[in-house]
Amino acid sequence: MVRTDKEVGFDWMDESPAPGIPAEGFSVRWTRVVAFGQGLYHFHASMDDGMRVYLDGELLVDEWRERSEREVTFSRNMAAGNHSLQVEYYNVRHRALANLWWEKDAVYPDWKGAYWDNQTLLGNPAMMRNDPEINFDWQMGSPGAAIPDEHFSARWTRTQGLEEGLYRFYVLADDGVRIWVDGRLILDAWSDRQQRELTVDHTIGGAGAHTVRVDYYDNTFHARAHVSFVKVAPPAYNGWKGEYFDNPHLAGAPILVRNDDTLTFDWEWGAPAPSLPVDNFSVRWTLHKEFDPGTYRFTFQVDDGVRFYVDDELLLNEWHQTWDQTYQVEVELPWKPKLVVEMLEQTGDARIRVTWARIK
Questions:
Q1: What are phi and psi of 269, to 5 degrees?
Q2: Does pLDDT of 319 surpass 80?
Q3: How far apart are CA 200 and CA 352, in angstroms?
């Protein structure tokens, strides 16, 4: 099939691009000549599965591999005049997403607001502007003349200096909203819903410049989007203090810190939170608890690895991939020990269950 496409902005989900094309195992090549004004341009390519992007014959995006949705960006100083673009794409199975858009460099002192005339953030934005804050109640109206009253979407981004610490994000949205911090998804409420309030806590691991991105869409009727965040005091951990890392080595700053009442988790093939990967993550839990002094037997059911410390003494070290293993440790506990449990998840299922009982 050969046809004219207005832009490379498609999310076919699990469907076929057109009659005669299969829903899986297909490929596409788009070519176009575009007249650019002189200046610096930022290009955004998102795909599921593989994509290559050429500008004036130069390969600038080479993501020719089977992987789920991701975004790649690059920037180029463009001379005024015509420039050739070529996009190649293939889908293996399941979702099929191919999207390319660009913007001329501009100064956005607050939130850079990009608005689309569709509700899927596909193709080139119909409107770009600086928004001092994300605090909109469009009711039954539109964000601007180029945007319809319904079925539109927006993306706000900003980079600013933030101190290290715990931040609380406040959201009021109708319909869908997602939030990323430094490329990590921390809130995913991408669904048709009447106005609702949401909060999510996220730990900034180090002081410096950090990027926040907010995606939003409106389906029909009322349209409202409000997002703000503030630094908050660290929470009091009356259970296990859980520190979650997006790597298998407990390295760097945790990307999620929360209170976990018990260590009884069966994430199966999923992740503990949207900001964490489904594989190759690690967790450290710390508990300060009053015990009746005596001898206790601790039982660990885990997939994959586990380590156990009492008052900084390593008593169990099984830091490797396993499949539903059970370990036991007997230890003499004082009145108020410090307990630390560390977990490693590599691939496959992820689960842990920790229990204990006094035996004398």
A1: -95, 10
A2: yes
A3: 24
How many whole angstroms separate alpha carbon 349 and alpha carbon 285?
A: 19
Residue pair 162/204 in contact by the 8 Å Cβ criterion: yes
Do the beta carbons of residue 212 and residue 155 sit within 8 Å? Answer: no
* Residue 154: pLDDT over 90: yes
CA distances from 109 to 106, 157, 209, 225, 305 (A): 10, 11, 14, 20, 46
Q: Are 89 and 54 in contact (CB under 8 A)?
A: no
**For residue 158, what are its two tokens?**
């900003």
Are residues 272 and 352 in contact, defined by beta-carbon separation less than 8 angstroms? Answer: no
Amino acid letter for position 220: T
Record the pTM: 0.69
Structure tokens at 150: 């319904």
In contact, 18 and 69? CB cutoff 8 Å: no
Rounded distance, CA 321 to CA 45, Å? 35
pLDDT tens for residues 139-150?
999 999 999 999
The rounded distance, in Å, linking the Cα atoms of 248 and 11 is 33
Domains annotated for the chain, with CATH where assigned, are 9-104 (2.60.120.260), 111-232 (2.60.120.260), 240-358 (2.60.120.260)
Q: How many CB atoms lie within 10 A of CB 148?
A: 14
